[in-house]
Known about the structure:
By secondary structure, this protein is α/β, with parallel strands linked by helices. Helix content is 43%, strand content 16%. Mg(2+) binds at residues 141, 168.
Amino acid sequence: MSFTIVEPVTSRLNRSELAVPCSRVELFEKAAKGAADVIFLDLEDAVAPDDKERARKNCIQALNDVDWRGKTISLRVNGLDTHWMYRDVVDVLEGAPGKLDLIMIPKAGTAADIYAVDMLVTQIEAATKVTKRIGFEMIIETALGMQNVDAIAGASKRNESLHFGVADYAASTKAKTVNIGGPHPQYGVLTDKDADGKRDYFWGDVWHYALSRMVVAARAHGLRPIDGPFGDFSDADGFRAQANRAAVLGCEGKWAIHPSQIGLANEVFGPSAAEVANAKRILDAMLAAQREGKGAVALDGKLIDNASIKQAQVLLNMAQRLGMAV
Ligand code: COA
Ligand code: MG
């Protein structure tokens, strides 16, 4: 281990994070009754410019009146380059003191962006005498934000998670996209001809580098990496495939832009009964090895070591949190 110890941030379930535009008041109760781990109340891009003020009022009322059933509640404020953002923070924090858990900062570009919001939130918390400390989640969705992702991740003690905002990221980098967060038919590898002259074409994962880069920056600062939206909410298999890729790279969850995606995200990012059983077998095998004074040991013909123990322990902790039999 390095002498620099990375402390993990406040631990929360973040398998699914549902987007709820504050312009649609009928969605609040439905979101609260659903199975999303985190709900983000959106004042940014899902709300039309003429509707911003009304949406902010809706948001304050919903934070005060709706029974959110213990869910983690985040507020996506407008960008720092707009004239709405300061009132989003001031009005909501003063109008619904102590109700929010997180603020989501869109299009985070530099560490100074986070510093600015931190300053504002710190003053409001002191003035309103609210002791619950709000955490930050940052969307990495511009070329500038990706370039500065490491500094952004380390910019505030309030930071909890980084989110890959694939749609704006594609716009910012001028990437070609067909469906938000999905693959692209032109991003593939054409194999050389085989003996019969036949060639294969394999679709590649166009988001691999960006997501990996964000995952590394998040984990190096103890933050949760979260994958962003998948636009085609009628394509459950497409969502599951993208969520699986994100989970394999280390993400802890994914956005749901429609209720149909919540269960899929919870399933992909929550441990299955088989994974729980396997984690228990790993721990048992390692305990037996330790009793015999061995460091590394084989299970089912494969090496398991200290890293396997850590992974198994993380999985079992989550299973316990979800009330699964462990
Ligand atoms: N939160 C809670 N409930 C939602 C919801 C959401 N985000 N989106 C849809 N629902 C509800 C609908 O009200 C409907 O409820 P009902 O069965 O009681 O009538 C049900 O889920 C099915 O919704 P559906 O009719 O298929 O969708 P829609 O046409 O009402 O809305 C979207 C589709 C995409 C416009 C909507 O889901 C949405 O606004 N999602 C968030 C998008 C967003 O915020 N994007 C920004 C981040 S990328
Ligand atoms: Mg965006």
